[in-house]
């Protein structure tokens, strides 16, 4: 029977992303902070709450007041990820968070559109599909499906998809899983990427996505790929390096009903069809961002909000606000406000605004 969890037993291949992990796939409980860690978090929270502007040293024209979208990004869990990544150094965490905020502006991360990146996605070389046994979203990378030459847009495509994986994270989940199949194709025998590009990607991941990478599972890793990975491993920190697993039993990590059957030992019958998958994924992710933004605004729009609350896993904000709106679905007004905050006002919202004007 087809569901949001799997398509086990279906003869027709699934063509859209799974929307949730299996019911028994859950993240480990978050460890409780020590008194010292809680004190450092509160100090960092106070610091981040006071930031009036974002300074972009590499593109001064993009410097300016901090936006609601950026304040919403500064969740409790976000601040804690940077604290852990800097071994609980408040000063280092401040520097890295501010550097990430500047990079996101300079890179135009929130301005990337599905239409602009669609040519990169046409062959399904990157697919967000299913969740592992800890509820972490899985992204399949298939270098053999590469359809474009190395370019800045290729890297933009990768980080756009990482952001969509974050959209797809269920409550309580903070990291993701990359599933890389190095099998060559008739169209693409060389499944490596330039070392310079790999180095840039690793640098950006380690600098601006601390503790987001949960695991990297790789199959069909022939000796050329192993040599390539050995070269780029010198650019990885030890923690990142330990997350790479070669030709491991992926079924130990991902429920077989959510594990793709294409080269992987799973039972999920999936077929990539760009005109179906791409709009459906972006629609789902946009709706999740709308809901998160609406919940953030409803609770007062504070820095340090809980990601559990924003994702709908809890109805009580860190401010004590109780979110309860008809099965916890944001109203049209709340969605409109959320879209406005995100800068993603669609036709529906514009129509609602026109209706309000003429009422």
Automatic annotation (TrEMBL):
Gene3D superfamilies: CRAL-TRIO lipid binding domain (3.40.525.10). CDD domains: SEC14 (cd00170). InterPro entries: CRAL-TRIO_dom, CRAL-TRIO_dom_sf, CRAL/TRIO_N_dom, CRAL/TRIO_N_dom_sf, PI_Transfer_CRAL-TRIO. Residues 1-35 are annotated as: Disordered. Residues 116-272 form the CRAL-TRIO domain. SMART domains: CRAL_TRIO_N, SEC14. One of its GO terms (molecular function) is phosphatidylinositol transfer activity. It holds the Pfam family CRAL_TRIO. PANTHER family: GH16843P (PTHR45824). This is CRAL/TRIO domain protein.
């Amino acid at each position: 029977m087809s569901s949001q969890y799997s398509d086990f037993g279906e003869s027709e291949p699934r063509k859209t992303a799974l929307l949730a992990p299996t019911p028994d796939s859950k993240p480990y409980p978050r460890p409780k902070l020590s008194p010292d860690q809680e004190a450092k978090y509160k100090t960092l929270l106070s610091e981040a709450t006071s930031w009036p502007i974002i300074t972009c040293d590499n593109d001064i024209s993009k410097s300016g007041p901090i936006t609601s979208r950026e304040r919403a990004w500064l969740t409790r869990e976000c601040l804690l990820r940077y604290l852990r990544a800097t071994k609980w150094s408040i000063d280092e965490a401040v520097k890295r968070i501010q550097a990430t905020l500047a990079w996101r502006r300079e890179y135009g991360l929130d301005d990337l559109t599905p239409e602009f990146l669609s040519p990169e996605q046409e062959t399904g070389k990157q697919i967000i599909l299913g969740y592992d046994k800890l509820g972490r979203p899985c992204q399949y990378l298939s270098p053999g499906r590469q359809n474009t030459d190395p370019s800045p847009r290729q890297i933009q495509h990768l980080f756009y998809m990482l952001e969509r994986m974050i959209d797809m994270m269920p409550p309580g989940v903070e990291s993701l899983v990359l599933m890389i199949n190095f099998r060559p194709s008739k169209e693409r025998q060389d499944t490596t990427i330039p070392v310079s590009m790999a180095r840039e990607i690793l640098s950006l991941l380690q600098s601006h996505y601390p503790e987001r990478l949960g695991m990297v599972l790789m199959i069909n890793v022939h000796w050329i790929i192993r040599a390539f990975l050995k070269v780029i491993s010198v650019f990885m920190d030890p923690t990142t390096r330990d997350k790479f697993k070669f030709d491991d039993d992926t079924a130990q990590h991902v429920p077989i009903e959510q594990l793709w059957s294409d080269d992987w030992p799973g039972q999920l019958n999936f077929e990539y069809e760009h005109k179906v998958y791409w709009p459906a994924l972006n629609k789902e992710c946009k709706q999740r961002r709308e809901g998160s933004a609406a919940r953030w605004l409803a609770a007062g729009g504070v820095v340090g909000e809980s990601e559990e609350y924003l994702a709908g896993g809890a109805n009580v904000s860190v401010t004590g606000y109780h979110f309860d709106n008809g099965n916890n679905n944001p109203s049209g007004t709340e969605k409109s406000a959320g879209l406005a905050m995100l800068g993603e006002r669609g036709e529906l919202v514009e129509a609602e605004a026109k209706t309000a004007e003429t009422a």
